[in-house]
Amino acid sequence: MCSCRLRATVGDIQRFKHPKDFPAYYGLVPRSMATGHNEKKGKITHRGDKTMRSLMVQGAGIVINQATKGNLHSKQLTKWILKKQKEKMPWGKLVCAVAAKLLRIVRAILISGKPYNPKIAGVAKCSLPKAS
């Protein structure tokens, strides 16, 4: 259901030039309030498709539970989630952060056209070995 809704609402994936643009389209990035030298991050922006955002948040909660139990196949994503939990990140912020990360992974899959690889999911592009 989530993937069908995403494909129906996203349109052309090439219009999202940067990885953070895709989660921002669904309102899963913190609101930025800047005055002079001070920059504060607020609540998420709640822009875009409300139903898709709620589906991603529910999916992210399941991913966090699976990572906590050790049932998630992506070791990198599990490591990242456990690190955030160890830092005592509140549940709501963690769920939104994981939902945004999942959307960045989906964007990378759609742009590259390659199948999902759990071994490299959640790894920064600069950390991956160079393709020769």
Structure, explained:
The chain has 132 residues and is mainly α. The chain is built from five helices and two strands, in the order H-H-E-E-H-H-H. It has helices spanning 2-10, 21-25, 50-69, 75-86, 91-112, and strands at residues 30-35, 38-44. It has a two-stranded antiparallel ribbon with strand order 1-2. A hairpin with a 2-residue loop joins strand 1 and strand 2. The chain is globular, with a radius of gyration of 15 Å. The chain starts with a helix and ends in a 20-residue tail after the last helix. The relative contact order is 0.15. The mean pLDDT is 83.
| Approximate strand percentage | 5-15%
> How many DSSP E strands?
2
Widest β-sheet, arrangement of strands: 1-2
Distance between the termini: 37 Å
Radius of gyration: 15 Å
Q: Identify low-pLDDT runs.
A: none
Biggest beta sheet summary: 2 strands, antiparallel
List the helices and strands and how they pair.
Blueprint: H1 2-10, H2 21-25, E1 30-35, E2 38-44, H3 50-69, H4 75-86, H5 91-112
Helix pairs in contact: 3-5
